[in-house]
Amino acid sequence: MRKGPLVIYGDGSANLRRAARNLPGVDLCHVSRLNILQLAPGGHLGRFCVFTEDAFRALNNTFGTNKAECTEKNRYHINRHVMNCADLARIINSDQVQGKLRAQRTSVRAHDKTKKNPLTNKAMMLRMNPFAKKQAELVAKR
User: Fold this and answer.
1) 12-48 pLDDT, tens per residue?
2) Spatial contact of 84 and 41, defined as CB atoms under 8 Å apart
3) Where does the pLDDT of residue 9 fall: very low under 50, low under 70, confident under 90, or very high at 90 and above?
4) pTM exceeds 0.85
5) Residue 130 lies in a domain
6) Side-chain half-sphere exposure of 67, counting CA atoms within 13 A
7) In a domain, 59, yes or no
8) Which of 1, 78, 72 is nearest to 42 (CA)?
9) Which residues pair with 50 in a beta bridge?
10) Does residue 45 belong to any structural domain of this protein?
11) Would you tell me how many other CB atoms lie within 10 Å of the CB of residue 133?
């Protein structure tokens, strides 16, 4: 089910909280209680979020920054970026990475994978029932 906009409020927005809770399809959340299920419901990114001014200021206290730890959570800080070069295709196709990878495997067909109907294919009938040839001769003699 589709989700509507998410209004994220702070401690100074008590009137906004009471006003927005009556709007159909609009969800409310306090800035200190944000979680991934509200920001990306069902794993789908891109939900429309509306921050109040005091909630936006409280983000640094709640989650910290790259350089400073947060004040509300014990020893929590936002991780820095791990990749310096975001061109993933260039990294994968580089000589250093390709030199460490194993050779590409080729599949060899062990046997014919298509199933043949023994009732219409005489060769398959003879493989399954060696007596079928003799039986056909006996039926033809009658």
Assistant:
1) 888 888 898 889 999 999 998 988 889 988 888 889 9
2) no
3) very high
4) no
5) no
6) 0
7) yes
8) 1
9) 7
10) yes
11) 12
